[in-house]
Amino acid sequence: MVSAFFYGTLMHPKILKRVVGNDGSCLQIRPALLLDYTRHKIKGADYPGIVHYSQSQAMFSRDLKLEERSVRGSLVVGLSDEHIRLLDIFEGDEYRRELVLVHPLGPSAALDGTEVNGVVPQAPIPTPDELQTPLEVTTYVWCGPLSELEPKLWTFEEFIEENAWKWVGAGSRGNQDYANVDGQRATEEIIVVRAEA
Asked: 33 pairs with which residues across the strands?
């Protein structure tokens, strides 16, 4: 089983369940924090990319505070190799899967019972001395050109207010970001049906 840190659209439980193709009952989720990375809005997209602060520092006219150079997200435990394969397809070639250290910020809960407002705590980031022991997990780091990232930091709250409707419910019909995963699933179903025939 694999543990992964999600910091963008996949923090939304319904979006994550849609991509992995099940109700999430086998997965545990908890809030977590990734230090020394910045999360940026990608030009022309609803979703963000993260890069190490050493790469993004030149994009800002000042040194960022700890809160600004830390990424809040969700730590998901129990992902299978098949889940990771589907997540790789969803993320595409704009991201590279890497191991990072994240600090848990709260207790775990079953993904299938988690609401979107329970994913990210609003309390201030604990001081480094107060953080829980970090865990090594997988995440998807932006590997495209830095010029495609805006210096504006992306927030999950803004995504929920302005763009989540395009990803969940009726608004998600025809969402091209799901198309590759859906196409792969459809191809595999055809192969399985033919193999069984």
From this structure: 72, 103
Residues 124-150 as b/e (b if ≥16 CB within 10 A, e otherwise) read: ebeeeeeeeeeeebbbbbbeeeeeebe
- Residue with the larger pLDDT of the pair 192 and 61: 61
Task: Give the H/E segment covering residue 177.
Answer: helix 176-196
- More confident of the two residues 111 and 96: 96
Coil, strand, or helix at residue 143?
coil
Question: CA–CA separation, 190 vs 95, rounded Å?
Answer: 29
How far apart are the C-alpha atoms of 90 and 106, rounded to whole Å?
27
Closest CA to 146 of 67, 38, 73, 72: 38
**Inter-residue contact 90 to 16 (CB < 8 Å):** no
Cα–Cα distance measured from residue 10 to residue 103, given in angstroms and rounded to the nearest whole number: 18
Rounded Cα–Cα distance for residues 185 and 18 (Å)? 12
Q: What is the pLDDT of residue 169?
A: 82
Largest CA distance in the chain: 64
CA distance 197 to 190: 11
Q: How does pLDDT run across 23-72, given as a tens digit for each residue?
A: 989 999 999 999 999 999 999 999 999 999 999 999 999 999 999 999 99
At residue 64, the 3 state secondary structure works out as: coil
Q: Which two tokens stand for residue 59?
A: 């994009």
What is the mean pLDDT of the segment spanning 130-135?
Answer: 94
Quote the Cα angle for 48-95-5, to 5°.
70
Across the chain, what does the average pLDDT equal? 89
